[in-house]
Amino acid sequence: MLTNLVFCGLFLSIAKMENKVSINNNSVEFSGITRDYMEAISELIWNGFDAGATKIDLVFDTNEIDFIPAIEIIDNGSGINLNNLHQTFGAFLDSLKRGSDHRSSYVRGKKGKGRFSFIAFAQKAIWNTTFFDEVANEYINYDVNISASNKDYYTDENKRVTADMETGTRLKLINLFGVTAYSFTSEAFINYLKSEFGWFLLLNSKNDFQLCINGDRIKYEDLLADHEVFEREIVDASTSRFNFTITFVRWNEKIGDKFYYYFLNSEKKEVFKQLTSFNNNAINFYHSVYVESDYFNLFNFTDTEETTNMFGSNPQSPIFKQLIKELQKIVNQKQKEYVKDDAVNELIRKFENAQSMPDFDAAELEQKQLFIELVKALYCIQPRLFKGLNESQEKMILSLIKSQLDDKENLFKLIRNILPVNDEENQQLKALLISNPIIAD
Fold it and tell me: Are strands 210-213 and 55-59 parallel, antiparallel or unpaired?
């Protein structure tokens, strides 16, 4: 058996193929490839996760002057299938056009273009990859080489049958420029990776997905202020049943200007996203919601006709509309919990620091406590009450509230006139004030 492996290995290693990249534009040079090394590394890491990797490690050595001659990106994915190499590396912009999703909210290593992102900071890339050839029933190892000076061509060589029955890829980038060891160990770089991959690692935490630098796992958990997983089953009129795994995340810091529901298929790849109805940064409620289901495997996000495909997988289907209602309930409850447990105390501190709080003398301690509890209650019910106010407006509203503490019935009427509350919020406000009790209505 060993003799056969050696013979096959020698036979396969004879061939060295230089291949032209098929492009439908001027050249790779003018294709819009990133020049930012962080984004380039991100695209190359996504290639590994797209290949089914559960662990990716950035490995490099440095010397006393912080110089690194090379960096490796090692993954345990399925490898690069030699039989499809012309599609993976060869069909550059054509492959990109078919594979890209313009609605994707994150950078993904799309087949074709992402492979060439190394030119942002390296002169040469060597992929040493092992894949399982199902036709030959063998594990094949070989190299792919691309030089930044001749990036319109790639070579595959050193093909051999291997007895190591493990797939994966070691991408070695050499002759680096514009980067040092600090570039890949700095807080800015670590935080970039956390922001880019933290959500993905969280969704795959049950399978122990890891992203490492020199063997040390990147810990993204400090980005998470709160997260919880919900399971929902939705049945439509045709009695079709769909299961959804919903992961709510509240971030410790701002992750973007908008907050979204991200809809992922069974491979955890985003097919669609939609703004949540809680895009109110006034209370720093930084959140994302990830919805996983095989319902999205064939999701048609361009189907906006209510009369078409009502029972299909599209934004107008009853299943999707019911799902959105469930998501709104979850986020609404999470926002209320956040306001009650965190944001309201920050609001009181803000008023105190700005000296917007009205004065209370020593004989008004109980009234002061009542005032603070009422402000907290109002903010929990309607955070927008205090949105966008300057210090003078804050003082005016707070002074008005204090002035009405002795006339609780008129205070309740004033609150109802000021707050744009719906029926449910009005009943919650009324019940809360009665239970304090602040008024009796």
Answer: parallel
Residue type, 144: V
Please, which residues have CB within 8 angstroms of residue 92's CB and are 6 or more apart in sequence? 21, 22, 23, 28, 31, 112, 113, 116
Q: Cα(222)–Cα(186) distance, rounded to whole angstroms?
A: 17
Q: What are phi and psi of 271, to 5 degrees?
A: -115, -15
Quick one: DSSP state of residue 342? I
Retrieve residue 23's tokens. 């492009």
- Name the most confidently modeled range: 86-90, 95-99, 208-212: 208-212
Q: Among 54, 158, 46, 170, which Cα is nearest to 113's?
A: 46
DSSP sequence for 115-132:
GGGGGGTEEEEEEEEEEE
Q: What span, in angstroms and rounded, lies between the C-alpha atoms of 251 and 198? A: 11
Residues in contact with 39: Cβ distance below 8 Å, sequence separation at least 6, in sequence order? 107, 117, 120
Taking residue 349's Cβ as centre, other Cβ atoms within 10 Å add up to: 10
Which residue, 388, 433, 326, is CA-closest to 334? 326
| pLDDT of res. 384 | 74
Among residues 250, 255, 248, 258, the alpha carbon closest in space to that of 195 is found at 255
Name the least confident of 71-75, 167-171, 378-382: 378-382
Q: Which pLDDT tens digit goes with each residue over 185-232?
A: 999 999 999 999 999 999 999 899 999 999 999 999 999 999 999 999
234 vs 243: CA distance, rounded Å: 7
Dihedral (C-alpha) 235, 236, 241, 246: value to the nearest 10 degrees? -60
